[in-house]
Amino acid sequence: MTTSRRDFLKTSAFASGGLLMGFALPGTAQAAGLVHTPNAWVHISDDNIITLISARSEMGQGVYTSMPMLIAEELNVDIKNIKVAIAPPNAKLYGNPLLGGPQLTGGSTSVRDGWEKLRVGGAQVREMLISAAASKWNVDRSSIKAVNGMLIGPGGKKATYGSMAAAAAKLPVPEKVTIKDPKDFTIVGKRTKRLDTPVKTNGTAVFGIDVKLPGLVYAALEQCPVIGGKAKSVDSTRAKTMPGVLAVVEIPDGVAVVADSWWRANKARKTLVINWDEGAGANLNTKTMLDGIRAASKTGKPLPLKAVGDADAVIAASQKVIRAEYVSQNLSHSPLEPMNFTAHYNNGKVALIGPTQWQDAAQNAIAAAVGVKPEDVTLETTFLGGGFGRRIDIDFIIQAAQISKAVNKPVKLVWSHEDDMTHDFYRPQAVNTMAAALGADGKPTAMTFRLTSQSVTGRVFGLPAEVQDPLMTEAAVALYDIPATKHDVVKHDAGMRVGYWRSVSHALNAFANESFIDELAVAAGKDPLAYRLSMLGNQPRIANVLKLAANKAGYGKPLAAGHAHGIAIMEGYETYMAQVAEISIEGSGVRVHRVTVAADLGRMVNPDTVEAQIQSSVVFGMGSAIMQEITIDKGRVQQSTFKEFPIVRMDEAPQIDIILVESTEKPGGIGEPAVALVAPAIANAVATLTGKRVRKLPITGDAIKQA
Questions:
Q1: CA torsion, points 460, 463, 466, 470, in degrees to nearest 10?
Q2: Mean pLDDT within 271-280
Q3: CB atoms within 10 A of CB 173
Q4: What are 639-684's pLDDT values in tens digits?
Q5: Which helix (H) or strand (E) holds 303?
Q6: I want to staple 701 with a disulfide (CB 3.0 to 4.6 A). Which of 303, 307, 458, 588 is the partner?
Q7: Does pLDDT of 50 surpass 90?
Q8: How far, rounded to the nearest angstrom, does the alpha carbon of residue 29 sit from its chain's CA centroid?
């Protein structure tokens, strides 16, 4: 069925009679009179309240401020006068074209996707309001200005945006509008306080774990200690007699106890006696999985990524060849807000409330799981207490809906942190194998690169095994001038349940590439900074941030005794970044004293948010670089708390110095690239300080001793 633009606007307007407008994707072909994939929304109510309906989830990255800034710039209103609401599930309207179309938040895409379309959308609304005022006042529209939420006309005429919203909604949406030249920006590019800070500090912000509904009951779920295992028999006799317990429910993923409080549900859950069919996963362990990946690297079918010249032949004929293998560990997402969701199955319809990164997938999956139509599933997205890719998956949402259907009540399912850590979709193990031939000047004349790992995209989107996975190849091709190169990927299913983890394959590949470049510099007897710069003649943006970071960090100048610097660079998410880590060895491990970051991400919407994202990324990346690892024995995850999977504490956090490059290029992503560079920067600093090269993460004290 097709809908005319006119009918669409009529049926989509809020009950108040205000203007609700969908923005067509710039550059997208569309038939006259039709709405095609609107991606962001503005509501202007009669009382002059402006609401952006955000197509992206807010999980701490600041999109509920940066995206309204883009709208406010073109509407000429104070950012404080814009409210934000999250869009309902509808991939046709709210899909993310940078991720292939689903209504998904991730990949550092929110601002990149909204940069032009939100500005165009704001300009369209502005012009419609001006046209409405011109018609009402019977004046030429060129005589009217839109300023600070007011329409100013000749002869002292004034009107609020809200008073003209209903009339504007009856006008055709202008296909072509003029958006501001960036030199005229008054909001975009300025440091702006986050709009969601007040509610997050005064306790009124609603996260999934805060949801309350009339008649709400609570569920705690016992899952097989081996992911994928099923219950063969259940003895719930004791649980059913415990205070507050309302029901014990078996679902495909485990056995849920439903009670009048989560505390009571979880206490009763611990009394369940379950005989598990552990399935094939019971045979998994970290060592054998890694052995399998290594074997696949040698015997598996490589998928070509990029080749220049004949790198294999050059290496075979070279007198000086350097080879290395780098190993990245399994990691848990473990956000501070554990997995949770509220579901209410009632008479063939399902209402969902909670934190998710992927609205349309949740809607469709729940519909299939409980046997209803997708249009009978509604979903309200709350704030996310961290995501990092974990809330792209929807297993916990399905579970909540299944339990609610079984008890015919609104149910809030909450996992414990232990559940969360032991039943994650983990960052996959990876093996990167590298080889390079060095010429007489010490520079590489050829280099080969191979990543062997699991394909998350194969699981999530059904990508065929024979098709290259673009989310495995991020940062695989470094930016250095090397005459002959060969890059390829081997997909290997190690049997682990894997998911997208913050920075995805950038972290795997940058660790290998930037560690290897340092190794080549040492083999050539060259300084790592000068060595890199000598091969970046065709990459001015990355060379510039490298120089800036090195200068700010004082690279090459004397450091405190027992301290050393390490360098790493990368282009990722259309952002160019360099990091310099200053470390020492203290006690049983690495102490990171200072991390200097220089970033060129093109135009910035909110520099304040950019800095915050880099700071959080450095701390997040530090944990994975020197502390964290998920290990498996007999199919069981061995870590269950932050004691065993430590996060960086405040007293462990380094000084973080940030340089943001002023740029006129299109915006790049910033929520993830800094994560990927921490590990190689630290690894390179450790090698400089100790003379030992750690090629397997995490870089612990024991790993350094064994290197």
A1: -80
A2: 97
A3: 21
A4: 999 999 999 999 999 999 999 999 999 999 999 999 999 999 999 9
A5: strand 303-308
A6: 588
A7: no
A8: 29
Q: Tell me, what's the pLDDT at 501?
A: 98
Please report which residue ranges of 568-707 form alpha helices under DSSP H. Answer: 607-626, 673-690, 701-706
| Nearest C-alpha neighbor of 194 from the set 417, 468, 383 | 383
- Give the Cα separation of 392 and 238 in Å (integer): 36
Average pLDDT score over residue span 458-468:
96
DSSP category for residue 294: H
- Give the three-state DSSP class for 661: coil
Quick check: 256 and 275 in contact, CB under 8 A?
no
- Cα separation, 116 vs 126, in Å, equals 15
- 3-state secondary structure at position 702: helix
CA-wise closest residue to 23 among 89, 67, 64, 82: 67
Q: Are 515 and 680 a contacting pair, CB within 8 Å?
A: yes
Segment 54-63, tens digit of pLDDT: 889 999 999 9
Three-state DSSP class for 307? strand
For β-strands 349-354 and 484-491, DSSP reports them as: unpaired
Distance, C-alpha 466 to centroid of its chain: 26
Q: Which residues of 441-454 are buried (b: 16+ CB within 10 A; e: fewer)?
A: eebbbbbbbbbbbb
Q: How confident is the model at residue 15 (pLDDT cuts 50, 70, 90)?
A: very low
pLDDT classification of 592: cutoffs 50, 70, 90: very high
Q: Is the pLDDT of residue 32 over 70?
A: no
Using an 8 Å Cβ cutoff, are 519 and 680 in contact?
no
- Is a pLDDT exceeding 70 seen at residue 609? yes
Q: Residue 356, by phi and psi: left (phi above 0), alpha (psi -120 to 50) or beta?
A: beta
Order of strands across the sheet with 150-152?
145-147, 150-152, 158-160
Distance CA 192, CA 463 (A): 40
In whole angstroms, give the CA distance from residue 612 to residue 419. Answer: 29
Which residue, 278, 247, 289, is CA-closest to 265? 247
Task: Provide the β-strand partners of residue 452.
Answer: 431, 490
119, 187 contact by CB (below 8 A):
no
DSSP state letters, 578-597: EEEEEEEEETTEEEEEEEEE
Residue whose token pair is 């009571």? 264
Q: Which two tokens stand for residue 637?
A: 């995850």
Strands 430-438 and 444-453: antiparallel
Among 684, 670, 672, which Cα is nearest to 532's? 684
Looking at the DSSP assignment, which residues form a beta bridge with residue 245?
A: 259
C-beta separation of 55 from 101 below 8 A: no
pLDDT at 30 over 70: no
Please report which confidence band the pLDDT of residue 46 belongs to, taking 50, 70 and 90 as the band edges.
confident
Q: What is the pLDDT of residue 600?
A: 98
The arithmetic mean of pLDDT across residues 295-301, rounded, is 97
Secondary structure of 189-243 in HEC code, one letter for each residue: CCCCCCCCHHHHHHCCCCEHHHCCCCCCEEEEEECCCECCCEEEEEECHHHHHCC
CB of 321 within 8 A of CB of 315? Answer: yes
- Listed residue (200, 53, 177) closest to 114, CA to CA: 53
Residue 107 pLDDT more than 90?
yes
Q: What's the pLDDT band for 166 if we cut at 50, 70, 90?
A: confident
Please tell me the distance from the alpha carbon of residue 683 to that of residue 698, in angstroms, as a whole number: 10
Supply 421's token pair: 């850590």
On the CB side of 327, how many CA atoms lie within 13 Å of its CA? 19
Q: CA 272 to CA 359: how far, in whole Å?
A: 33
Which pLDDT band, with edges at 50, 70 and 90, does 25 fall under?
very low
What's the pLDDT at 41? 67
Whether the model clears a pTM of 0.85, i.e. scores above it, the answer is yes
Amino acid sitting at position 10 = K
Residue 411 predicted with pLDDT over 60: yes
